Amino acid sequence: MIINGYENPRKQINQIAINCCFFGYAAVGQEWHSDFFVSNFTRIYIITEGKAVLADYRGNYTVSAGDIAVIPAGTAFSYRCDKYMEKAFFHVQYAYNGGDVFNALHGISVLKQSDFPDFCGCLNENGDPVLLQCGLYSIMQKCMHNKNFHSEELQRVISPLTTKAIHFIRE
């Protein structure tokens, strides 16, 4: 019998965590708008009905039923709904080595719900927490892939000094 241990991937896996700050469902109309907003957590909108317009420094994104919009923590953006929209939404922090991964992924990403069928199938108050967590990790991976941001780059995003400061504050 031969058993090989892989230390580096194990350490990296143990440094990744998702903190779900809020999960809910909203039906909104024209009252849902803001000309400028910056959040300290990543917002994930799963559009189930209607449409809205999101905008960041790169342009406007019209999102509608079937879309997933990912707005990284720290991104300056605006939003508006001209008529009606329903969405499931998450406010999350994707932590790697003490910092939010999405701080490094500037700008809004729009994905398709069809890429995450199990995740989108359990978006309710009784949803399977394992499927929901796996879906949130899959969304993170897809955004990183779409922006050509590879996991080995995560170690360069957060400086060792910042990591030490975060650990000191937590203690």
Describe the structure.
The chain has 171 residues and is of the alpha+beta class. The protein has helices at 7-14, 117-120, 129-146, 154-157, 160-170, and strands spanning 16-28, 33-38, 42-56, 59-64, 67-71, 76-80, 85-96, 99-100, 109-112. The longest helix is centred in the C-terminal third of the chain and has 18 residues, at 129-146.
List keywords for this structure.
single chain, alpha+beta, nine-stranded antiparallel β-sheet
Structural topology:
Blueprint: H1 7-14, E1 16-28, E2 33-38, E3 42-56, E4 59-64, E5 67-71, E6 76-80, E7 85-96, E8 99-100, E9 109-112, H2 117-120, H3 129-146, H4 154-157, H5 160-170
Write a brief caption for the model.
The chain is built from five helices and nine strands, in the order αβββββββββαααα.
Task: Classify the secondary structure makeup into a structural class.
Answer: alpha+beta
Low-pLDDT runs of 5+ residues are 155-162
Number of strands: 9
The portion of residues forming beta strands comes to 35-45%
